[in-house]
Amino acid sequence: MYCLNAGGTSEVIQVAARRSAEKTVLRFLFWDAWRNGAWALAGRVEPWLVDALAARTGPSSAAHQWTLLHSPRPEILHAIERGDALLSHLDGEWWLSF
C-alpha cells in the first residue's frame, strides 16, 4: 500500500508478501509507482525485505530511523523485537518531525 504522488516522491505505507513472493511484490510496487508518474518511493523497510530490495537495480538509500515502543504487555514487545509483527506508518506518528 502506498500513497501516490505523481511527479514526486510517493510514500510507501506498508509492504506485505509471502517470504517467497517478496521480489515479485516489490517489482510490482516499483512498476506501478513508475507507471503512475512517481519519481521515487520512500518509507520504512522491514528487515526481511532488505535482501529483496537490494537485489533491485537502481539507486536506493537508507536513512536511519528509530522506533520507540511501550506496552504493558511483554508479548507485544517481544513479537515486535522478533520481527513477527507488521508495523507501518499508520502505527505511529511518522508525520511528526523530531
Question: Which sequence of SSEs, written as H and E, runs from N to C?
Answer: EEHEHH
Which structural class is indicated by helix and strand composition? alpha+beta
Assembly state of the chains shown: single chain
Q: Any idea what the shape is?
A: globular
Strand content: 5-15%
Q: Averaged pLDDT, please? A: 82
Give the uncertain stretches in residue-range form: none
Rg, Å, rounded: 15 Å
The helix count comes to 3
Give the topology:
Layout: E1 2-3, E2 9-12, H1 22-35, E3 40-42, H2 50-54, H3 74-82
Parallel strand pairs: 2-3
Antiparallel strand pairs: 1-2
Give me some keywords for this one.
98 residues, 3-stranded mixed β-sheet, 3 strands, 9% strand
Question: Can you walk me through this structure?
Answer:
By secondary structure, the chain is α+β, with helices and mostly antiparallel strands. 29% of the residues lie in helices and 9% in strands. It has three helices and three strands, in the order E-E-H-E-H-H. The protein has helices at residues 22-35, 50-54, 74-82, and strands at 2-3, 9-12, 40-42. The chain has a three-stranded mixed beta sheet with strand order 1-2-3, covered by helices on one side. Helix 1 links the parallel strand 2 (9-12) and strand 3 (40-42). The chain is globular, with a radius of gyration of 15 Å. The protein starts with a strand and ends in a 16-residue tail after the last helix. The relative contact order is 0.18. The mean pLDDT is 82.
